[in-house]
Amino acid sequence: MSKTMKRPTTRKSSTRKTAARAMSQESDAKSMLQEFLVDELKDIYWAEKHLTKALPKMAKAASSEELREAFENHLSQTEEHVSRLEQVFEILGMKPMAKKCDAMAGLVEEGKSIIEDTEDGTATRDVGLIMAAQKVEHYEIATYGGLAQLAKTLGLTEIKDILGQTLSEEKETDELLTEIAENHVNVEAAGEDE
Ligand SMILES: [Fe+2]
Ligand SMILES: [Fe+2]
What we know:
Blueprint (H helix, E strand, L loop, with lengths): L1 H60 L3 H27 L10 H16 L5 H31 L3 H34 L4
The structure holds fe (ii) ion (2 copies).
The site of one fe (ii) ion (FE2) has 6 residues, from helix 2, helix 4 and helix 5.
């Protein structure tokens, strides 16, 4: 009798153990995913800070007023992107940390070599600058798109919204650069002699 009495108790506790194990596995997976999110945040934080130094150089190198203005406006936005990321770190209860983003370092290097390889004051230089800048924007769009989705999966709604705001601005900038290239710069550059 005592054995049969014990049996359900044992079964219950083992059911509880299985449930607890499943829950802890789920929270482990969640924390691994959150760790990945934090790692990616450090990467884009470095990238955005790096861009606040690169964009003034690109603005200075631009030949057309329109393109210079676009770079200057995006510099102010980029400064905002940096502080939004600081906000995200704060929500996660962390100090902002940057981790070198090799991809962004490479894209900025590419922009620098375009400036070196093209002549000052030419539309051809602007074509190159727009292409380099759009590669940067596409990297940012991919990153913020992925991060916003990840935050949503983790139930971090506030963070998802903050990252989504930046994502919209990166997309707008990309579209604006396409417009400048299509409507003005590319046409002018096509008429430039060597
Ligand atoms: Fe940005
Ligand atoms: Fe950007």
